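Reviewers of the previous submission asked for a worked example of the structure-prediction workflow described in the proposal, so we include one complete record here. The input consisted solely of the amino acid sequence. No template or homolog information was supplied to the procedure at any stage.
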Amino acid sequence: MVSTGRRSANSSNRAGAVLASIVISVAFLGVESPGVGSAAEPICRAPRLVGLTLELAVGQMAVAHCNGVNPREPDGGPAEATTSIQRIIERQSPKPGAPATAVTVWLRALCWQSAEPGPPAGEPFIRRGPTTLVSGLFLDGGPLRRRSSCRSGTPSPGTIEVLDPSDTRLVARQRVRAGRLAHIRLAPGTYFVRGTFANATSNGAPIQTLPVRVRIPSHRIVRRDVVASIK
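From that input alone, the workflow returned the following C-alpha cells.
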C-alpha cells in the first residue's frame, strides 16, 4: 500500500513537470496558451475615412491597426481599379469609432471643372406647360478646380431680353437676381435670347451674351440659358 502511494505521487509529479515545461516552451515561442494569462487583442476602432482618397484611407487604417479597406462602387458592386480618375470616399461602414476589423467604403469620382461651370448640359429642356421661356445668365470658364462631383453653375444677376428674329425687335425683358431664372410667357414661335450681366464687366462695360436662337412650341416650357465665356 505504501509503495503504491509513492508510485502515484511520482506519476503526478512527472505530469506536473511536463505541463510546466509545455507552458514555458509556449511562452518562450511568444504564443499565449488559452487560460494561462493571455492578453486581450487590441480592438480596432474604425477611423473616419469619408472625404479621403482610397490611398489615404489605407494609411489611416494602418495607423488604427485595422486589417484593411473594402472598396465598393456607389451601386454596391466591387470597385473597379482605375488610375485615370481619382476618387474619394463618400460613405463608410461601420461608422467612425465603431469596433471593426475591416471597413467597407463607397467611392465616387472627383471632377475637374472650370471655376464657372456654366449651365446644365443638354439644353434646351422642354416639358409640358404654358408657353414659356425659362432662361438664366451664366458665366462659363476660368481656371480648373477639383470637385467631388461635377455640377452646373449658379445663375448670375442681370437682364434677359427676348428679340423677334425677323427684325430684332425687343419682345420682352426681365431682370433676374443671383441664383434665379427668368420666366417669360410668350406666343409660340422662334426667338433670339440674350442677356446682360449686372455683376460682370469687360473693360469697364457690362458683359453681354451673344443672342441664341430658341423655338418655343405651343403649350411647352422651354429652358434655354444664355452664356458668356470667360478665360
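Confidence is low (pLDDT under 50) at residues 1-9, 15-40. We consider this example representative of the routine output the project will generate in years two and three.
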